[in-house]
Fold this protein.
Amino acid sequence: MDGEAFHTVPVDAPEKGRSVIGSLSLIGSSVAAAWADYSGPVTSSLARTYQVRTYGCQMNVHDSERLAGLLEQAGYAAAGEGEQADVVVFNTCAVRENADNKLYGNLGMLAPAKAARPGMQIAVGGCLAQKDRQTIVERAPWVDVVFGTHNVGSLPTLLERARHNEQAQVEILESLQVFPSSLPARRDSAYSGWVSISVGCNNTCTFCIVPSLRGQQADRRPGEVLAEVQMLADDGVLEVTLLGQNVNSYGVEFGDRLAFGKLLRACGDIAGLERVRFTSPHPKDFTADVIEAMAQTPNVCHQLHMPLQSGSDRILKSMRRSYRSGRYRQILADVRTAMPDAAISTDIIVGFPGETEQDFIETLDVVRDAEFSTAFTFQYSPRPGTPAAELPDQVPPEMVRDRYQRLTSVVEESAWVDNRRQIGREVEVLVAAQGRKDGATDRMSGRARDGRLVHFSPAGAAGQQPIRPGDVVTTVVTGAAPHHLLADGPPTSHRRTRAGDRHQAGERPTTPGVGLGMPGLGRPSAPVVPATAPTAACSAP
Ligand code: SF4
């Protein structure tokens, strides 16, 4: 282990059953050294239960599937709904505003539960852990384990080490040691799966903390990616989303700038795989071969999430985003020429330092012309550790709020116009687990091929068999709102799928690390809990 790159900082943690509020003190390195190489079986964790609470983007949602897979491999079982778990893992995000205050608030709420439950452990991982390191155990000394974005695989060992030593363990690596996809995963869904193609990012957008927390881009080999996609498809999964901070620079590490388009085409050869999506692309690296691959590969969905961030070239330059609005508009035009039915969404930041009213109006102009199907809009606020936080001319918060409201209304109107165009069209819907209002409205929900959310009536479907999450229906759009479509007539077809069978049986795929064999199926006790709705993979400020 490299001392420069490997910080193990054991600190005093409460003894089991003792008051959980203890003071922080560093211990000598001998205990750490004794445990530093521990990688043996986690024998005492049998029958202990866990819960993973996830914050932030799809990357974290997928990392949490890996954390769940690791813990189950180590003998833990998912805690039942409403049950207090023996181990609570926070998979944190550093991007959202006040992420740290929210984390400490949540940790504080767990302190009494831990005091009342000898042996309970709390672990904090993800981007905020990578950023704040031992500060977390200084502010919340009842936390047992802090691990970073580069050592997700260490969690079971760190939990065991903390329990054995009765001392908190903080382990943060400076660079990726093991690609997370080589770890087992307990998947959340029987019909839809995430597959990482890369981690980290080589860009230097001034508002973004990702490069400093996730490191330089590391690409998986195409064979490994495809093996994982194949495993999921063999298991009945119908839809796969390829994940990377910047999927369009995929291949830069192994010297093939066309690798992403080739990967999309190769996904087209995977039997049983009906839908391929990806997030996030980057306008700088988005090339014509990817548009061709999307248009020519039948199972690649005509859905594109293309982060704009700003319509002002001056602000894009200050953000260190190396495309300009003209290039962005050209990409959208090329995509719509090749795929007139494409639904295009975006990310936009308002109130970036130095943004003038004129800059903002240029953003609104692009938004009006682009006719996005949806947009993730963000009010800029400085994030410690990012270059933009140091920039002069920070825009006053009330001006940011005003622009945000004006932007939101333009985005909503534009999305509503685009959604109204779908009325009368037949859409194919991959049925999803029940939505919040589905019970009250007697509707079910799912995604159309272009990613739009569809609430549909299952009444009168052809055949008598009930429609289940994981099944596929076709139905005709009867209404539209800015964020969803309605289809209140009877479905025109209903196809029962293996994914639907497995969802109904309560089974979810459990994939091993890449290339290590076929996935198994098991009955999970509880899903990994997304604590907030995931954001787009890249760039929320
Ligand atoms: S915003 Fe996206 S492209 Fe830019 S540095 Fe962050 S992750 Fe990379």
